[in-house]
C-alpha cells in the first residue's frame, strides 16, 4: 500500500476515536475530501486503546436513538464476527438499557476499512503540535511525526481529540471537569482475564445477590455470529470478598467493588474495576503517574480475583490498556453549553443535530465508593426522556473554521456524564462530520450554516434526529418478545424481579 498525503484537505479530523471515525465518515459522505490525523497506529480511541468492554446503548429504553453511520458501523462489525450488536439489559441500572459487545481488533479493522472505502486518508503516528490561524479562523495544523513536522491546511478542522487539544491550542475557552469543584471523573485502567470459568462466576453472583450493587443478564435481540454466542451478563459488587481482601491487606485499588462483564470471547471477563483518582489526564506528568497507579491496581485486582473469587482459579491477565481510560477532562466553551437540566428533563431544541439518552453517570471523583453514598459518592441519574444536542454545542464560541466533536463538546460535567458513552459520542461525531463537510464544501463558517440543511442530510444518512413513534412502538414490542423468549429458556437470571414482572404483565 502506498500512502500519499495532500497538503490541503476540505476537512481534517483530529483524533480517530469513536467521534473522529464517525465525523470522518460523515464528512466524506457529504462529499468532503477528508483526512484523519491520529497519534496511535490504529483507530478507536479509548474504545480500543484503553481496552473498553461494550459499546453502551444506542437506546433509550427500547427506542434506538442513535442510527445512521454508527449503526452501519455496528452492522459491519456484526458481519465480520466482531460484535453481538446491542443486547438488552434486563436491569438497566448501572450499565444502561443495551450493551453491544465487540472485539477490539475487529473494531480497529472495520473502522479503518470503512474510512478507506469512503476515500478518507488516515495519517497515523502523528500528534498535533500547532494550530494555524488567521485572526480567529483556524486555517491548518502541524503534526509532529518521527520524520519531523508536517503542515496541512484545512477548510474546516474537527476537534475529535477527546481532550479538545486543537481548540485549546487555538485559544478556545474551556472548563476542566466540574466547573464548581474543578474535579473531573476519575479514569480507569481497564483489563481482561482469560481462562475464567464464567458459569461459576455467574453462579456466585446469582447466589449472592446482596453482595452486588447492580447486576443484569443481557438478552440478544438479533442474530449475530455463532462464534460469539455465550451467556452475557454484567455485575458490580463482590463487596464481601473485596472487604475481606482489603482488611487482609491483599487488595489495594480505588474502589470498594468490582465491575465485571463478559469479554466477547468465551472464558474471558472484562474489568472496569480500577479507579485512578485525582490525576488531570491532560497534564503529561500527572498522566504518567496515573499509568503507574493504574497498573499497580490491575495487578492487585487480578491477584485478588484469582485468590478470592470462584471461577478465577486458573485465570490470567490477557490484556491491559495501552493508556489509562480517560473519562473526562476539558469541556470547550461553545455557542451553547448543555446542562444537567437539559439532559435530565429531556429538553428539545430546534437546532437539534443528535440526541442524548444515557443516564448521567458520574464516577466518584474523590474516592472509592460507588453510586450508593449520596453526595459524597458517584451518581447515576436517570433521564425523563431523550434530550437534544443542539448544533451550538459543536461550535466553539470564538473560533471559526472548527467544529467540536466527541467528549470535548460544550456541556457541563453533569451533561457530559450522559453523552460521554460511545453511542452518544458516535451520534455527535456523525453530526459534527456533516456540519464540517457541508461548511467546507459551501465555504461557510459553522456558526452560519442553516441547521435545517444539516438535519436534512443527517436524516438522509439514517440518523434519528427526531423521535419516530411508530418505530419506537415496534422496537418496544420486539424487545418484549425477545425477553419473553429468553426467560422461557433460562431457569435463572440476575436482575430485579419487578423489571421482569413488568415484562410478563
Ligand atoms: C474507563 C472508561 C470506561 C468507559 N466505558 C464505556 C463503556 O462501557 N461503554 C461505552 O460506550 N463507553 C464507555 N466509555 C466512554 C468512551 O470511551 C468514550 O465515549 C469515547 O471513547 C469517547 O470518544 P472520543 O472519540 O470523543 O474520544 P477518545 O476515545 O478519547 O478518542 C480521541 C482520539 O484522539 C486521539 N488524539 C488525542 N489527542 C491527539 C492529538 N493531539 N493528535 C492526534 N491525535 C490525538 C487519541 O489517540 C484518540 O484516538 C468509557 C470511557 C472510559 C475512559
Automatic annotation (TrEMBL):
Keywords associated with the record: 4Fe-4S, Iron, Iron-sulfur, Metal-binding, Oxidoreductase
Claim: Iron-sulfur is one of the keywords in the record: yes
One Gene Ontology MF term: 4 iron, 4 sulfur cluster binding
Pfam families for the chain: FAD_oxidored (PF12831)
Signal peptide start and end residues: none
Coiled-coil regions listed in the entry: none
Protein name: FAD dependent oxidoreductase
The species this protein was found in: Ruminiclostridium sufflavum DSM 19573
Upper taxonomic lineage: Bacteria, Bacillati, Bacillota, Clostridia, Eubacteriales
Amino acid at each position: 500500500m502506498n500512502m500519499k498525503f495532500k497538503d490541503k484537505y476540505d476537512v481534517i479530523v483530529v483524533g480517530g476515536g469513536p467521534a473522529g471515525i464517525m465525523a470522518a465518515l460523515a464528512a466524506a459522505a457529504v462529499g468532503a475530501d477528508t483526512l484523519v490525523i491520529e497519534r496511535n497506529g490504529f483507530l478507536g480511541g479509548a474504545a480500543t486503546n484503553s481496552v473498553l468492554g461494550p459499546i453502551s446503548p444506542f437506546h433509550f429504553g427500547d427506542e434506538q436513538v442513535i442510527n445512521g453511520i454508527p449503526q452501519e458501523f455496528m452492522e459491519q462489525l456484526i458481519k465480520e464476527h466482531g460484535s453481538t450488536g446491542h443486547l438488552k439489559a434486563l436491569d438497566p441500572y448501572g450499565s444502561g438499557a443495551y450493551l453491544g459487545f465487540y472485539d477490539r481488533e475487529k473494531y480497529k479493522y472495520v473502522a479503518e476499512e470503512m474510512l478507506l472505502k469512503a476515500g478518507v486518508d488516515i495519517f497515523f503516528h502523528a500528534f498535533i503540535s500547532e494550530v494555524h490561524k488567521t485572526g480567529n479562523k483556524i486555517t491548518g495544523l502541524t503534526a509532529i511525526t518521527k520524520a519531523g513536522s508536517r503542515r496541512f491546511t484545512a477548510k474546516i478542522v474537527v476537534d475529535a481529540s477527546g481532550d479538545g487539544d486543537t481548540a485549546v491550542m487555538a485559544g478556545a475557552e474551556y472548563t476542566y471537569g466540574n466547573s464548581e469543584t474543578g474535579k473531573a471523573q476519575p479514569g480507569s485502567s481497564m483489563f481482561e482475564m482469560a481462562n475464567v470459568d464464567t458459569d461459576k462466576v455467574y453462579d456466585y453472583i446469582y447466589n449472592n445477590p446482596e453482595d452486588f450493587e447492580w447486576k443484569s443478564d443481557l438478552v440478544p435481540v438479533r442474530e449475530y455470529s455463532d462464534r460469539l454466542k455465550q451467556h452475557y451478563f454484567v455485575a458490580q459488587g463482590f463487596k464481601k470478598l473485596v472487604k475481606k481482601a482489603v482488611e487482609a491487606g491483599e487488595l489495594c485499588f480505588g474502589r470498594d467493588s468490582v465491575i465485571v462483564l463478559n469479554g466477547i470471547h468465551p472464558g474471558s471477563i472484562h474489568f472496569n474495576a480500577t479507579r485512578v483518582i485525582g490525576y488531570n489526564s491532560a497534564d503529561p506528568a500527572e498522566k504518567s503517574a496515573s499509568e503507574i497507579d493504574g497498573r499497580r491496581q490491575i495487578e492487585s485486582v487480578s491477584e485478588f480475583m484469582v485468590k478470592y473469587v470462584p471461577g478465577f482459579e486458573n485465570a490470567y491477565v490477557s490484556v491491559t490498556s495501552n493508556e489509562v481510560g480517560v473519562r473526562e477532562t476539558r469541556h470547550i466553551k461553545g455557542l451553547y453549553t448543555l446542562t444537567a437540566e437539559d439532559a435530565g428533563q429531556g429538553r428539545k431544541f430546534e437546532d437539534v443535530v443528535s440526541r442524548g439518552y444515557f443516564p448521567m453517570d458520574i464516577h466518584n471523583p474523590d474516592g472509592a465508593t460507588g453510586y450508593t453514598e449520596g453526595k459524597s459518592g458517584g451518581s447515576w441519574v436517570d433521564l425523563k426522556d431523550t434530550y437534544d444536542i443542539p448544533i451550538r454545542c459543536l461550535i466553539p464560541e470564538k473560533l471559526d473554521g472548527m467544529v467540536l466533536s466527541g467528549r470535548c463538546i460544550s456541556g457541563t460535567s453533569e451533561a457530559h456524564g450522559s453523552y460521554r458513552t460511545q453511542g452518544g459520542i458516535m451520534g455527535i461525531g456523525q453530526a459534527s462530520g456533516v456540519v464540517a463537510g457541508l461548511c467546507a464544501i459551501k465555504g461557510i463558517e459553522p456558526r452560519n450554516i442553516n441547521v435545517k440543511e444539516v438535519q436534512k442530510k443527517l436524516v438522509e444518512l439514517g440518523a434519528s434526529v427526531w423521535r419516530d413513534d411508530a418505530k419506537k412502538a415496534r422496537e418496544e414490542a420486539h424487545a418484549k418478545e425477545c425477553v419473553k423468549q429468553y426467560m422461557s429458556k433460562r431457569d435463572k437470571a440476575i436482575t430485579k424481579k419487578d423489571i421482569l414482572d413488568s415484562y410478563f404483565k
